[in-house]
Amino acid sequence: MSTNTPVTVTVTGAAGKIAYSLLFRLASGLVFGPGTPVRLRLLDIPSAVVAAEGVAMEIEDCALPLVDSIEITDDVTAAFDGANAAFLVGARPRGKGMERADLLTANGAIFREQGRAINDHAAADIRVVVVGNPANTNAYIAHRHAPDVPAGRFTALMRLDHNRALSQLATRLGARVSELDGVVVWGNHSATQFPDVTYLTRGGEPVTAGLDPEWLADTFIPRVAGRGAEIIAVRGSSSAASAAGAAVDQMRDWVRGTSGESWTTVALPSGGEYGTVPDVVTGLPCRSRGGEWEVVEGLEIGEFQRARIDASVAELVSERDAVRALGLAD
Ligand SMILES: NC(=O)C1=CN([C@@H]2O[C@H](COP(=O)(O)OP(=O)(O)OC[C@H]3O[C@@H](n4cnc5c(N)ncnc54)[C@H](O)[C@@H]3O)[C@@H](O)[C@H]2O)C=CC1
Ligand SMILES: O=C([O-])CC(=O)C(=O)O
Question: Which domain holds residue 191?
Fold first, then answer.
């Protein structure tokens, strides 16, 4: 029997595809551990509340021992009241041929309202993972509307890009993912992102010198950066189970810590680290210590990296400026 205090976890877009994978993993203890019950809060828009109720019924039917309660709502305030963790998934997904910039206007208003509700109603230890696209800029908007919440409590999901990079590298090297470390994906969760293998190790030994630079530039980087679009083209629908898996990985590592000196990729409001622009939400190499993300310090950045990081951060700045112009950032 579990004895810990339950955690209250809010999932928005609860009737959608990603939530359908995410909720069951949360309810199974994969994030908060096998001793911590979860109070699930499912938020969706009024027209989707009935479908969210159906998802809740299925969670009930799993008879999962860690589920303390399930509440379904279309009320943003109620959804975040006392929340310790929030997965902001609900948004309009990108269809064929659409770029993330097209989603800024549609989704910005959602994240402004949710940022305000988190600021006013969530628990003091709230941790936020923004999944809905354009994830980095949505996280920036939510953060801007939550001035009482430390900036580092707002993250966007780039763990999926990180996991995609690890998997491509493992295949190329004939390695297991668990042998690899030192990957980071800088910048935006978009086609401009920079999956960087400069610090890659296998079993603790550097391996980057053994990777063909042409393969890295012409195959690896575009493959990882374009994987979301590739999945849409092949599957006819955007990534769902892999996105949910990455969101679980990110929140689990945040709450329970990363292992040893290993790091992962988290998109955080920048403090200007590695020449990035302060306050934009960019992918950075991070370790989780004592329940907080810490940006890894002291990595050397070469010319090729500099140009790639700067290009993706420039896109984030232009998204930030666009939402500022739309009045969504203040
Ligand atoms: N950051 C990442 O790595 C990834 C992000 N995504 C993004 O995640 C988002 C969700 O994807 P799916 O679950 O596949 O979409 P979906 O369309 O299946 O579900 C979205 C859900 O959000 C709900 N929703 C819309 N507006 C809402 C609001 N204001 N409040 C609460 N709920 C609201 C919809 O009613 C729907 O139930 C999309 O923006 C997608 O682009 C998808 C894959 C990876
Ligand atoms: O590309 C999309 O629209 C969905 C997404 O973010 C991804 O799969 O990385």
Answer: 159-319
Q: Which CATH number goes with the domain that contains 68?
A: 3.40.50.720
Are both 131 and 218 inside the same structural domain? no
Residue 96 has pLDDT above 80, yes or no: no
Q: Is the pLDDT of residue 101 over 70?
A: no
* Residues whose beta carbon lies within 6 Å of some atom of ligand 1: 12-13, 15-19, 43-45, 48, 89-91, 93-94, 110, 131-133, 135, 157, 160, 189, 238-240, 243
Q: How many domains does the chain have?
A: 2
If asked whether residues 147 and 12 sit together in one domain, one would say: yes
Q: Is 189 a catalytic residue?
A: yes
**How large is the average pLDDT for residues 3-25?**
96
1 pLDDT higher than 80: no
- Taking the centre of ligand 1 as the mean of its atom positions, its distance from the CA of residue 33, in whole angstroms, is 26
Last residue of a domain, one of 101, 124, 156: 156
* Domain annotation covers residue 59: yes
CA-nearest residue for atom 7, ligand 2, is 228
Q: DSSP letters along 143-196, please?
A: HHT-TTS-GGGEEE--HHHHHHHHHHHHHHHT--GGGEE--EEEB-SSTT-EEE
Mean pLDDT of the chain: 95
C-alpha closest to that of 305 among 279, 280, 285, 278: 285
pTM for this prediction: 0.97
